[in-house]
Amino acid sequence: MRLVPLGDSALLAELGSQPDDRVAALVRRLFGGLVASPLRGVEAIVPSFTTVAVYFAPAAVPGAGEPASVVAAWIGRMWAKGGSRSALKPREVRLAVAYGGEAGPDLDEVARCSGLTSAEVIRLHAKGTYEVRAVGFSPGFPYLSGLPPALRTPRRATPRVKVPAGSVAIGGTQTGVYPSASPGGWNLIGRTARVLFDPSLSSPALFRVGDRVKFESIAAAEYGRQLAAVHPPATPAAQTHEPAFTVLKAGLLTTVQDLGRTGFQDVGVSPGGAVDARALEVANLLVGNLPGEAGLECTLRGPLLAVRKDSWVAITGAPVAGLPWARPFLVRAGEELSLETLEQGCRAYLAVAGGIEVPPVLGSRSTLVSAGIGGFEGRALKPGDRLGVRPSVARPRLAPGWFAAPALAPRPQSEVTVRVIRGPQADWFSREAWEEFLTTSYRVNPLSDRMGARLDGSALRLPVPRDMVSEAVATGSVQVPPDGQPIVLLAERQTIGGYPKIADIISVDLGRVAQLRPGDRIRFVQTDIDEARRQRRAAERAITWLHQGIGQRE
After folding, report:
1. What values do phi and psi take at 335, rounded to 5?
2. What total of structural domains would you count in the chain?
3. Same domain assignment for residues 506 and 381
4. Are 54 and 75 in contact (CB under 8 A)?
5. Do the strands 10-14 and 51-56 form a parallel or antiparallel pair, or are they unpaired?
6. How far apart are the C-alpha atoms of 396 and 285, rounded to whole Å?
7. What's the pLDDT at 82?
8. Does residue 206 share a domain with residue 108?
9. Judging by DSSP bridges, how do beta strands 212-218 and 356-357 pair with one another?
10. HEC sequence for 113-175
11. Domain check: are 327 and 272 in the same one?
């Protein structure tokens, strides 16, 4: 086992280079041991084909030592003990599948590639027993090993914009099942009516690493009957308080966000939450909330809100034209609150005393836009939506001219320099490529979103092409796809990825990236992991001091 940093608050345990049966057994063993003997402060444990990633909240890790060292020692003890097989006892999951026809439009193409008939493809696929090697790509999506070699089929040249939920597919040497409607480039050979992911459950995913999966071929008519009998996931309870705001104009992308959800990355659920987490924390503290209350994230062009009851609010992140910034102010019933013009920066945050009231999903009120869960009905706001506010537990301490210090609420810039540590695959790149990475001024591509900031600039090439086995990623990881143009992963990132990570942005600099608009510029400068962790501790202390200075107590 080799432990390497994954950003400044995660460790990646590398257990092998090839995703074979031996390494898969080691992954299950270590994952099982860590789950069976939890450590306070650990927020997620994510197994993949050859690695196990451990994410932690440094301030919550017990002991007087460096939190990363405490976590590393815990991982080492679990590895030395040989793990716990009982904690991850494999289950057998059977899925009834209607193959071919409308349910499997690529079945004939798979048959053509394999030199078999469609009936032989169905027989071979349903005959096998498969193992879940990883869960990711989308919530609940299982990557299954054990595909018969004869059925190996290249991914589609052009991915589909929308793959139906329940689609059984083949991609390269693996097979899998799409839990929800999503884009995808695998070959669709059938469909199941089984619900693979239900966010209303405390254990939302059907599959976990190590499970065994068998498929059973059924007729299309039987699939239709099973689909009709499926009950939709339970709808979270509606708001219970009178609305404080009505949306008159929704803006470009306005969502309800808190600091994200923890504990579900191992089943493919992104942590999500505010892209500029520090801005939301400060806004909440300014109005007397705890740092993690739900507020509004407004992207590039914010909403126009009708105020229905008197409310204390604060705006941080991107300043909004005509409104106070980084200080609490009162809005009165009957007024309109416009966040339509962001003066600079990409994302403004509106906190309201008490917090926006939406039902928690998997422990968070944040909107996971890509999966359609959480927040306000799992989507961006639209005109006519009514927003409730939870009862305020405290009133902000006000004084003439009072505001958050610039160090806590910095103004966004159109050109930024952010600090990075070398990523897990940095050694794959030449010294010249690393220097190119550190000296290039990259431009933010318009295709950037909450999942990642796509950058345009000098292409970073591997000296020798290498196959990357998918493994866990972190918020701030800088991935390099085959075209050589880096992608900075942001809050709504996937949980595992198959591109090499040349670097990780330190956590205290992520807010600068979150505020970059398309066309803005970013440069990278190298630092070390010790400095990254010192900066994180200093930022956490500053938030604690602001919390205490306003007079709030948890």
Report:
1. -85, 165
2. 4
3. no
4. yes
5. antiparallel
6. 8
7. 75
8. yes
9. unpaired
10. HHCCCHHHHHHHHHHCEEEEEEECCCCCCEEEECCCHHHCECCCCCCEEEECCCEEEEEECEE
11. yes
The answer to whether position 15 is within a domain reads yes
Q: Which of 453, 15, 474 is nearest to 209 (CA)?
A: 15
Give the number of other CB atoms < 10 A from CB of residue 333: 11
Look at residue 297 and tell me if it is in a domain. Answer: yes
State how beta strands 442-444 and 142-145 pair. Answer: unpaired
Res 83: pLDDT: 57
- For the record, the structure tokens of 172 come out as 């390269």
Task: Measure the CA–CA gap between 403 and 391, rounded to whole angstroms.
Answer: 24
Give the end of a domain, one of 171, 205, 229.
Answer: 229
Domain boundary among 229, 252, 284: 229
Which residue do the tokens 């126009």 mark?
Answer: 304
Q: Give every residue of the chain whose pLDDT is below 70, as ranges.
A: 83-88, 237-240, 393-402, 551-554
**Same-domain check for residues 100 and 180:** yes
125 with 114: CB under 8 angstroms? no
DSSP structure class, residue 199: T
CB count, 10 Å around CB of 117? 12
Q: What is the rounded distance in angstroms from the CA atom of residue 34 to the CA atom of residue 177?
A: 27
pLDDT of residue 231: 79
Residues 202 and 280 in one domain: no
Residue range of the domain that includes 457? 415-536
Q: What is the DSSP letter of 197?
A: B
pLDDT digits (tens, 9 = 90+) for 330-368: 999 999 999 999 999 999 999 999 999 999 999 999 999
**pLDDT for 236:** 72
Whether residue 111 sits in one domain with residue 71: no
Q: Check whether residue 221 and residue 321 sit in a common domain.
A: no
For 401-425, give one letter per residue: b (16+ CB within 10 A) or e. Answer: eeebeeebbbebeeebebbbbbbbb
If asked whether residues 458 and 496 sit together in one domain, one would say: yes
Helix 529-550 to helix 277-286 angle, to the nearest 10 degrees? 20
pLDDT at 395: 58
Tokens read off for 303: 């909403």
CATH label of the domain that carries residue 105: 2.40.100.10
What is the distance between the alpha carbons of residues 370 and 90, in angstroms, rounded to a whole number? 30
Q: What is the DSSP letter of 29?
A: H
Look at residue 107 and tell me if it is in a domain. yes
How many angstroms separate the Cα of 395 from the Cα of each of 313, 487, 503?
A: 11, 41, 42
**pLDDT at residue number 346:** 98
Classify residue 518 by burial, with Cβ atoms within 10 Å: 0-12, 13-18, 19+: middle
Sequence letter at residue 342: L
Provide the edge-to-edge strand list for the sheet that holds 347-352: 253-257, 295-299, 347-352, 311-317, 329-331
What DSSP string runs through 275-321?
SSHHHHHHHHHHTT--TT--EEEEESS--EEEE-S-EEEEEEES-BT
How far apart, in whole angstroms, are the C-alpha atoms of residue 428 and residue 482? 13
Is there a domain that residue 401 lies in? no
Predicted confidence at residue 554, as pLDDT, reads 41
Q: What is the pLDDT of residues 66-94, one digit of tens each?
A: 999 999 999 999 999 875 554 567 899 99
pLDDT of residue 239: 64
